[in-house]
Structures
1.
Amino acid sequence: MKPNLAIDFMGIKLKNPVLTASGTFGYGYELADLIPLNMLGAIVTKTITLEPKLGNLQPRIAEVSSGLLNTIGLQNIGAKAFIKEPLENLSKVGIPIIVSVAGSCVKEYVQTAEILSAQDAISAIELNLSCPNLRKEIVCHDFPLTDEVIKSVKKVSKVPVIAKLSPLVTDIAELALCAQNAGADGVTLANTYPAMAIDVKTFKYKLSTVKGGLSGGCVKPMSVRCVYDAYQNIDIPIVGCGGIETGEDALEFILAGARVVSVGSASLVSPTRLIRIIYEMEEILKEKKIKNIKEVVGMLNTVKNAC
Amino acid sequence: MCTLKRFDRTCEIISNKEICTNYFELKIKAGNIAKYCLPGQFFMIGIPGVFLRRPISVYDSKKNVLSFLYKVVGKGTAILSRMCSGQLQVLGPLGKGYDLEICKELNYVIVAGGTGIASLHFLAIKLGKNKAKKRTLYYGARSKKDLLCLDKFKEIGWKVVVSTEDGSKGYKGYITDILEEKVKDSDVLFACGPMPMLKKVVQIAKEKKIKGFVSLEEKMACGVGNCQGCAVNINKVIKMTCKDGPVFEIEEVEL
């Protein structure tokens, strides 16, 4: 029998736990001709800010062993324009839409989340508290600021709020707990890893901003560890993210404690991988005679700290 | 001209031959994909052993066979060049190609630098054998051994002017030096090559008020506009080379 992949995530019903990762799937509808979008669990859009952003200078991407460095700089058309066209197209897909949101200060996070969460087509907000490519400090490296952003957004948001966290902290479990205590309904673990590369042929940095965010297969074990540690400390659901390329990778995150997963760099390489991951998960569960994906969430992670 | 239809598919390698030192022509069995390709469009080609797919322009598309002409420049293309059989993951055709409908009354001028010749070769084939038109290829390369497919252009009736940086064939210097002298406002330009060459082509075209198109090259991760890695500043507006280009109208670009 076909295993049941449907899962409840923060009160949102998903047909399977495979999501796109913010910043890797555009506004979410552009690849409708290449893959059946309605087969996905949910779509997470690229990060939207209050005003349009031009993004960073070239070069913005650099390939490294088993991964990718990027410094896009949150290029986007701004909240108002997003509601007009992309959201309209997205709402026709027929699956939950999660919009990634960032701001340059608390007020901007709040305003953007307020505008977007009022849209019927949006099921949840993911707060990007961890973009490594802005000149400012990464929000979630500052616990009181993280607390303030989440609390303030929660006050105005009409939909569940997920906090996307940076893996580059001393104690990810403590940061996840901070997000939970501030009222987050879920956390995404983890964003890209601050990293850099130098071209020795030209003696130049490979990215315009020198440093960028590292993603792809090479970060997977580190992100699985983040999920594992955080799961022991929090009760809110986790979106596992980092280097997922196959169904096996996705299940690794889920066994460690993620309720759902988001796929980023792998879908940049091949959009159809998003769909293949769903089939591969089904196959593995079938082989293991597991009827429902819910049974394996955090299955191996039996340590639960008091929280 | 835009993509008619895109595919993310596995294709069989037919052949992958070194046509001259370091330059390879890859042929794949592409089935119905081949008929949707327009000159200037490209494919993202998956290469085992490197993380990202590589953007490579269509060199030719006949019946069910797609050809790509590429130079070995790094790890990815080196691995690709050693693959003689097997399968490749391809995503495409992608991007905006050259506009074939524009300026039917004008004479065709192609300006190619290095491997930029690949997409222009496909263009020349698609422009057809209209004898009423003058058709000239201006082609610059490092040296004689870097000049590719000259015979193919001659076969379909193009006048060929070449330059080499070391003077081993044709004019010694840059192809844009000759272009500047020869090009007229009754011409329409199609150019593809390294950025310094394109900058000069755009400058010449604007000074002489000549219409035309340039095809840009950028590092790409996804090829479909989602990662926004290949941003380019076109008249103070940020565009994506992969999706809004790679072919842009000369009038609209400032390089």
2.
Amino acid sequence: MDIIASLGLGFSVALDPMNILYCFIGVLLGTLVGVLPGIGPTATIAMLLPITFSLSPAGALIMLAGIYYGAQYGGSTTAILINLPGESSSAVTAIDGYQMAKQGRAGPALATAALGSFFAGTVGTLLLAFFAPPLARAALNFGAPEYFALIVLGLLVSIALAHGSILKALAMIVLGLLLGMVGQDIYTGQPRFTFGIRELYSGLNFVSVAVGIFGVAEILRNLENEKGRDVMVKAVKNLWLTKDDFKRIAAPVVRGTVLGSVLGILPGGGHILASFASYSAEKRLSKHPEEFGHGAIEGVAGPESANNAAAQTSFIPLMTLGIPAHPVMALMVGAFILQGITPGPNVINDQPALFWGIIASMWIGNVMLVLLNLPLIGLWVKMLSIPYRALFPAIVLFACIGCYSINQNIYDVYAIGFFGVVGYVLMRFGCEPAPLLLGFVLGPLLEEHLRRAMIISRGDPTVFITRPISATLLGLAVLAVVIAVLPSIRKKRKEVFVEED
Amino acid sequence: MAVSNFSTKDLVSGGIFVVAGAYFALEALNYEVGTPFRMGPGFMPLFLGSVLAGLGLAVAASGWKKPDTEERLTPSWRGIVLIIGVVIFFGATIRGLGFVPVVLVSSFVAALSSRLNSPLFSILLAITLTVMCTLIFVVGLGMSVPWFGPWLGM
């Protein structure tokens, strides 16, 4: 297919005045909600998903994509200004960004984040345009064993660089996989782990699990220590970068973009992995490694670019294979299905206008994001001066209302409370919630493809290593674990994580 | 609570994993397990539950000789009870009482879960949030829920 003609089609869809408006609303809403402390892209999309129900498929998905990278950017803003990352991938930005803000350099930090994101977003979008079609074609050769191997790879890669203890991350993934099995069995219809509650037959609602385990658990943790959670950075002066700053961020932005683009394609926390990997790479390559953790601008530029490049390329597995690379993409799958479209290899052929329209709108969204955010930084800071004690009741209510409005199912609301407590307890005892959510999303897919593969192979497990693609993917998965367990790398992991406190 | 020579964190989180894994594995025995060729609904949960229980033991064991050093904050029981209470209240009454009263009560109680919020502030916050949420969700987004529910005779 001719890329230029396809992109032309895409831009004709994306530049439709209504779609520009949806894109703008999405970016604006995403930034507004994402900039609230403790709310990252997952919770933002979860809450704003219902808004898009009544729109056309293209409009809805363009708006959701806008919300996604708007929230991603908004999350970095809070990470920099008040050291409160809205999600795991902006945790890295907080390390040096917050230090810069404390030194009165919040302006350059925010500007670096915006510019790095824009560059990375542009490259990521181009990669998506060029590589999505061939990947989609390759995806048609994917059978059940390959999908299974791909999911295993995604799950295992996400441990390799996850926070802290590998064992705990692994256990959280398995717990997530098990929680994903609540509901009717796909092949026999047998209800599992439902306590006889009919409303649970269709499984636990992903949004409830996400909002409970991230949002509510985070609130419970913040209530432990009510002092010292006020806005400490009041003055954001000197917005723009100096010439020296530009020189310092150029290379990290490019490297971050490359790392992010590659890792973003992997299902399973690729974007989280990307920002951590970029941070440790920059630290190793820097001439002044001692500055890292004390306000090094490279420590903002690299991870932010990586994060955003990964955000774009993580649409590749979604749009071509129908596999969500991370929880936000799982919500996007939900959005596709609600619009009557099954995400997967066929979207590009059946709905070319939609496919290319979304891609083109991503670039337009990135332009809007920069235009919107650079002048508005002062306003964000004012919004952050709302005290936390007034903010968290609003978060609790938005969570309840948002989850209830999706299916009008009150068990979805109860699930928020249950997973709020579960998430809080696990967090208190040193377990990161992100891997659990990933397992929860991929659990049903893993089971389905494993069972299908075993039926096809008549119960012969060697099918996974005799088929070349699946063997390669499983090999990579093993490699990922080996690298994670190697002591030398472990030491590096510690170096990266120590500075976060 | 501190067991000498053991990390409480690892011990407790490991314990949680063992209990959860055991529950899933035992419950899975009630379903048809099947063979690797034709796996039944119980196969994966039984397998993964056992793996989780094993991982839990490993997590607990990994805390050996690594007692916790940092001091942990005491949980805010008031916060936990009130916030979870609000969530349950919301679910239990949204159909009966309708949007406005439920949101008003919920936001008031949620606000009270912070010790920094005075009752007066909580009332003002509750009214503001109710107006805001009603405008955003019911008027703006057309959420299909009555303003006042059947329990109030409307």
